[in-house]
Request: fold
Amino acid sequence: MTLRKNILAGWFAHLVTVMIGFFMMPYILGTVGELQYGAWVFINAVAGYSRMIYGGFGATICRYVSDLSAKKEWDRLNQFVSSIQTVYFGTALLAILATGIFAWLAGGIDKWDTLSLDEVRISILIVGGTIGMGMIGSVYGGVLIGTQRLDIQRGIEVGIGILRLVLTLVCLHQHYGLITLALIFLTVTVVEQSITAIVAYRLIPTLSIAPWNTRRDVLNECFGFSAFNAIALFAEYLIFFTDTVVIGVILGPLAIVPYQIGLRIAQMIQIPIAQIGEAILPKAGELHAKQEQQRLGEVVAKGMGIAFLLSGGFCMGAAFFGDMLIQTWIGKQYQSSALVMVILIGSQVVALPMVVTRKALLGTGQVRIPAFIDLLEAFCNLVLSLILIQFWGIVGVAIGTLVPLVCIELFVFLPYAMCHLNLERDQLVSKVVAIQIPALLGLLIYCEVISRIEMSYGWLPLLAVSTGGGIVLLGIRYITHLLHKPAFVEQAPALP
Reply:
């Protein structure tokens, strides 16, 4: 499976997921109400911290499966995957214990308003069990990604997304909204992990994941690689869940809803572009194993350029038409979400190209320094969010995410990545930034002109504006590509 096909498969899967998500979020919000939806997001954010017990082994599976499958060392591959799953059985128990403690402590939170405490606690326990089951089964997804079959992995995700939609429509009318959401979460996780396991065994007929394949020397090697990746994972979850937890604890679950709307749109934009990094991770492992460093640098620079172009385009569209999107999607009562959305998407203009470099570094085994850089960024994010929420509410939390991300990614992480991925400054300027400028300028002119035209809000006008913007951005970028493409000159045969 080629790198391009893996990326396209990821984008197609995300397109389906976005369409489902656009339908589901307003439906869930309208069905269970703001209070229950805010509580659901808060429960998942707090319970999500238990995923940090993964210890960074998820990327370890991808890295070693990629390396060992390229070398066709199938017995060694079985030892690594089996050893990591053995660890996951232990971490699953810890995750269930952690969420059990959270369920017990939930009674001390005085911001549940009219929600039943028993309903909240049962939902937390179901979520904890789901996280534990997902940990145990996640090794099979690591096998698919490590063998560069992201097309299969994304196809499973599409099917699971459709299943989640159907279950939500059928079941959410029940009285216990939170418990119903938790049970849907559990059901789709069981189905997803089961299908992924079946496919993994068919993809690698020699695959054998069993306790007797666990090896102490393999565990030591995995822990050595995963230790610093675990720090990076801790930082990632701290950054990802900090905003929601800070808002929930200080302002209450109701305040989470307008922030979550802006965050959800930012994530819908972030995830497909981040697929570039996910596809590059196993490719980087393969190129590193073959010692093709120049080729690795070229692949990373190209991926960063695509990420910069797309994130910049989405940011521009959000700045001009974000309010139109939110009013059409959710309603006029959530106009405050527009500013949060623009700030969060703006941060992705820097973050997403760095995701590509971070995944490439991970694929080559470079985890120590990036882990500590991520931890520094997470700490700054937490501190700034706690300070700025006191002055600007949810907008302050968004700014608390933007500022450390931009500063640390550009001035700390990028120089380190350049040194270890064979990236030159001129290469970054020309292939990542400069070549994208004409397309982004064209989109800016388009947005400025269209924004001056009076139009009614609705899905049809929004779709027309988005389609036009996409054509302008990608059309100009394609023309730029043709202009920079070296001309093919056919050599004349030598004279006798």
